[in-house]
Structures are given as structure tokens and as C-alpha cells.
Design a protein that fits this description.
Two copies of one chain form a homodimer.
Chain A: E1 5-11, H1 13-16, H2 23-34, E2 38-45, H3 49-61, E3 66-70, H4 81-89, E4 93-95, H5 97-109, H6 116-120, E5 123-125, E6 129-131, E7 140-145, E8 148-153, H7 157-171, E9 177-186, H8 190-203, E10 208-213, E11 221-230, H9 233-252, E12 256-257
Parallel strand pairs in A: 1-2, 1-3, 3-8
Antiparallel strand pairs in A: 4-5, 6-7, 7-8, 9-11, 9-12, 10-11
């Protein structure tokens, strides 16, 4: 069974000018991988309605089953993710009464009135399930169009993480787990190990091996990462066996396993 | 004058499983922004020939003038960036004699022979300028198709950075600079500041203001980032003036500028 393909759409100019490192994408990618999903693409674009709408559409065309957006849910004029996703899905973007209540309660507790900017955060794709934000103010949303699920989270990392934890089991039920084994070797250049890695991956198409040379080819430390995403315990054993075989082949080449 | 649009195509499964945070993208985005270019999109995909080829093509269709790839230049079987970019540009991927010489010299200095895996690193899009790698082994490439420039850098951050520094002035000559001013305010929620930010951005379309609330809306610390990419000193003055106006508006709302 192929893992469910997920795309991440991280939205915000602060990422495009390099002011912010996209740790949200790496965090989400690791979480989805652990749950047995396969992140197939991470796209970062600015707060641009047409681009967000067209990437949402294109994710469907590419065969993704889930797209997760981060960013653009707040009160400022350039927070336009909900409206843009609605456009991409050909859904109306409407005031969601439950979201509005959450926002009203929040501001009422701060003794602040509901302004148009605050009300805007309750405008969500028609049919959305509202996602409560236990840290900040802007609610998230989850909306289906046919079998395609779009989930919108805020861009503030702490808000994203807390909301993901609240809703992950419901929205992204675990489909397996990531099994992984590491082989750390000194004394063999990556290019010498390459044919062995290729043979092992081709003979075991259910797993993947990446070599991560820690500095240049001339020096000698490489971390090999043998992994698979699966719910089958036999695959876990097979990964372990392949990692051992890799280590023994590297030793034959003169490597020291560390 | 609109800044030259650049897309970053960061390649590698290690990014898609969240094993690696994409610091390369943020670093490149900041470097291009400082040089007066505009990064319009950052895409992260796996080592997949068709996807790399089609994203290269699509970047051209979207109006990018430069695409920079990172990753996939090494000796392992899944290092296929040069071949995939060639496909996207409808160019042959051929042994580049200059690249081959660099690689031969490197391995000869390590007393290692040229294997097919090592030779593969010299296969580059036809017509490429070879980029020397002072840290590692895999050379980079720069190739034009019409006015569209594709530059391929390695994914190892230290190699990427050294090679960028070596070739940036030639490949990406400075077209201006990023001018930026920060306003840090306590005591005003982001949603209260939003209408002022919107008015200032609409009145000064040559600049951008992003508000970065440092925690939840209920608390009160926001960093406002007023910036533009320009070679015009009048725009720098205008950004400074707008930052001052923003600060004075926030003070009127009860904020403390810190």
C-alpha cells in the first residue's frame, strides 16, 4: 500500500525573503512521516490569492489527498489563506458562526470590540470544520472537497504545533510508522559506497537509503539512513537486515562503523 | 522596476521526511533579497526526474528568470538533478570535459580511480558553465535556455555557501539592496494595528510591512518589519519615514515602542 500523499503549502513573504527559516515545514513533515503519510512536496509562496488558489488546485491534480497550509489566517490585510483556498476549491468563503464565537469570546475577555479585521478571521471556506486555537486567536479550518482534504493552520510555530496535536488523530489517523536505522561509517567516500546503496535499494524497493556525507568527499564520515514508512513488522525486520548488510559491505571496503 | 524573479528548487527526500530543516532555502532567499532579487517561490521535491523536469519548465511558465536548484549533484543513484534539469530544458545531458577534469584531479589526489558513479558527476546540461566546488567534489553548473538561467548547487550547506560566494557576483550581479526598518511595539494587539498597516502599505506601494506577533494576540509584543528592495535612495528615506509614522500611530493607540 502506498502511503497517503500530503503536500505542505507554507505561506508568507517572510519565508521568501529569508527572514524566517521554514521550521514549520520540517516539523510537519516529520509528524506526517511518523504517522505513516508521505509528504510529496513542500511549496512556499507569498500571500498571493491567485498563487494560493492555483497551488491548491494543482495539488489535487498531482494526486495529493491532503494539503496542509500554514500562515495567513491572522487579522492583517495580507492574511488571505482562507479566501484563497476557497477560491482554489470553488467554495464560497463565508462567516463561520462557530469561529466567530471563538473570536468574540477571545476579544471580549481582553475587553476589545470586534473590528472588521477581527471578524475577517472567522471567514472560512463553506463547510469547514473549525479548529480551535488554544494559543492564539485565529482559528484554523479543515474542509473537504470530494476526497481531498485541506487543513489550514496558523504560521506561528507554537500555535501550529498545539493545534496539530489537538486534531492530528482525528484528521490524520496513523497509517503506520516510520522505521529507521542508521549506519555511521568512517573511511569510505560516498562515491565508493554508492553502488552498494543502489543495489540494496533496488533489491528492497519497500525501503529507502540516503547517504549524508557530513563534510566533503575527501574526508570520511557518512551517516546512512535506512528507512521505510509502514505498518508491517516484516518490513521493520527487513530494514534492520539491510542496515546490517550495508554495514558489513562497508566494513569489507575498509570502513569503520562508529 | 520590478526585481528579477527567482525560484528556489530544493531537492531531496531528507527534506520531505523532516530529517533536515531547509536552511539552504532561507540562506539563499536572504542572499538574493540582499542583492535586489525577488524570490517568488521555494519548492521542495524528492529526487524524481519527472518532477524536477516539470518544475523547471513551470518556473519558466510562471515568469521566473532564474531557478536555483540545491541537491542531487553527488555520486549516488538518486542524485539526478543535472539529468532532470536537462530534460526540463530539452537539452542533452553530456559529459562536461572541464567538470570531468576537476573530478579526476580530486580523486587522483585521494588515490582513488574514476568509477561510473564518480564520472556521473561530470554529466551536465549541454552548454553548462562548470562551477568549481572548493569544499566537496561534485561541481555545480549554470546553464541558459534563452534568457532563463538555471544554476545547480550541491545540497551540503557548506558547499552551497562557498560556491555561491565564488560565483554570485558573476551570475547574480547586485540589482539593488534590501532596505529595512523595524518597529517593536508592546501593548497593541496585531488586529488593532492591522488597519494602520494596511493604509500605510496601500499609500506606499513600493514597500512592504509585515507584523510578526511574538506570541499570542492576548499578549502584546509585535515586531513590525518595514522593507523594500531597491537601488533608489529616495525609497530608503521613504521606508524610514513610514516606519516613523507607524511608530507614532502605534503610540497614539497606547503602544510602547521598545
Amino acid at each position: 500500500m502506498m502511503p497517503t500523499p500530503v503536500e505542505l503549502l507554507t505561506i508568507g513573504y517572510e519565508l521568501l525573503i529569508g527572514k524566517v527559516v521554514n521550521t514549520n515545514a520540517a516539523w510537519l513533515a516529520a509528524e506526517f512521516t511518523k504517522r505513516g503519510y508521505s509528504v510529496t512536496r513542500i511549496t512556499c509562496i507569498g500571500d498571493n490569492e491567485d498563487e494560493i488558489a492555483s497551488e491548491t488546485k494543482r495539488a489535487i491534480e498531482r494526486g495529493a489527498q491532503i494539503i496542509v497550509t500554514t500562515g495567513g489566517l491572522g487579522p492583517t490585510f495580507d492574511d488571505i489563506t482562507a479566501r484563497s483556498v476557497s477560491k482554489g476549491l470553488s467554495l464560497d468563503c463565508v462567516i463561520n458562526e462557530e469561529a466567530l464565537k471563538m473570536i468574540e469570546q477571545k476579544y471580549s475577555s481582553l475587553n476589545l470590540p470586534i473590528t472588521p479585521e477581527r471578524k475577517k478571521m472567522a471567514e472560512l471556506p463553506r463547510g469547514s470544520k473549525v479548529l480551535r486555537n488554544p494559543v492564539g486567536t485565529a482559528p484554523g479550518f479543515a474542509v473537504k472537497k470530494g476526497d481531498f482534504l485541506v487543513v489550514g493552520f496558523p504560521g506561528v510555530p507554537q500555535e501550529l504545533k498545539e493545534m496539530f496535536k489537538l486534531y492530528a488523530d482525528e484528521l490524520f489517523p496513523p497509517k503506520g510508522e516510520m522505521v529507521e536505522f542508521f549506519v555511521k561509517a568512517r573511511g569510505v567516500p560516498e562515491s565508493s559506497a554508492a553502488p552498494v546503496v543502489e543495489r540494496l535499494v533496488k533489491a528492497n524497493p519497500f525501503l529507502y537509503i540516503k547517504s549524508h556525507p557530513q563534510s566533503s568527499e575527501g574526508s570520511s564520515y557518512i551517516e546512512f539512513h535506512v528507512y521505510s514508512v509502514t505498518s508491517d513488522p516484516r518490513i521493520k525486520s527487513a530494514c534492520e537486515r539491510v542496515a546490517k548488510e550495508l554495514a558489513s559491505e562497508l566494513i569489507k571496503m575498509g570502513a569503520v562503523i562508529v
